[in-house]
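Let's do one together. I've listed all components of the complex below, 233 residues spread over two lines.
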Amino acid sequence: SAVISQKPSRDICQRGTSLTIQCQVDSQVTMMFWYRQQPGQSLTLIATANQGSEATYESGFVIDKFPISRPNLTFSTLTVSNLSPEDSSIYLCSVPPAGANTDTQYFGPGTRLTVL
Amino acid sequence: AQKVTQAQTEISVVEKEDVTLDCVYETRDTTYYLFWYKQPPSGELVFLIRRNSFDEQNEISGRYSWNFQKSTSSFNFTITASQVVDSAVYFCALRSHHMEYGNKLVFGAGTILRVKS
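Okay, and this is what the predicted structure of the assembly comes out as:
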């Protein structure tokens, strides 16, 4: 199994500022996923972060708003830019299975963001 | 297209009752994976089970059991003798085997389970 940590665990930010969320995995993984969970809602994939290449964004999410870095195989950051109250959510990183779709998918503990 | 439907928004039961959470999925793939996750009030997502599309055997783990029926595209989750600690949001999710979908999970809307003492 993979152990995933996220920093910060929670934050309260002012409108117009940015927050960078870090995700650290205890093993090397090719892909890392970033999900958003708005209050009372399900999880929605923001983007897939591949090491050494640009992140792949899902429909409705753009790089200017959610820039992602993936400097190595164990670490990624997601920045939520130009914050508005609508960005208040839990942001979770996730690691896909290590093998050929044979393992579970693990999630970090999440970062709870509140935008005032 | 892939879709997961959890029609039950919220369920309330009294402790020791059995409860079943429904999950219906849609996919055109013949090989796929189904998951259940638990999200307690603390917010973390706890993995409960993964099921491959080619394995229709039902599974039991303690008080938890899962009923996978490909004929009805359902993957229901039953908690026997529910406890207050089972109170959480439960998510059903689907992942395709095919790389065109990457390894992303498609989640249902979630079912809030409240177990009262």
